[in-house]
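Task 17 of the worksheet. Students: predict the tertiary structure of the chain below and write it out as C-alpha cells. Keep your answer in the requested format; marks are given for formatting as well as content.
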Amino acid sequence: MSAKAHKGGSHHELAAEHHETAAHHHREAAKHYESGDAEKAGHHAHVAHAHELHAIHHGHEAAKHHAEHHE
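Model answer:
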C-alpha cells in the first residue's frame, strides 16, 4: 500500500471513530435532557458537535488523499 493510500485509510478510520464518539455523546445528552439536567445535556451536545466537526475534518483529509492518489 502506498503512503498516500495509507494516510487516506487512516483518516477514514479516524472519521468513523469520531462519528461513533459523537453518537455516544448525543445519546448521553438525550438521557440527561430527559432527566431534566439541561446543563449536562448541553455539555454532551457540545462535545458531540466537536467530534462531528473533527470527523468532517478527517473525511475531507481522506478525500484529499484519495484525489492525490488518483492524479
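Marker's comment: Confidence is low (pLDDT under 50) at residues 1-5. Helices lie at 3-34, 38-69.
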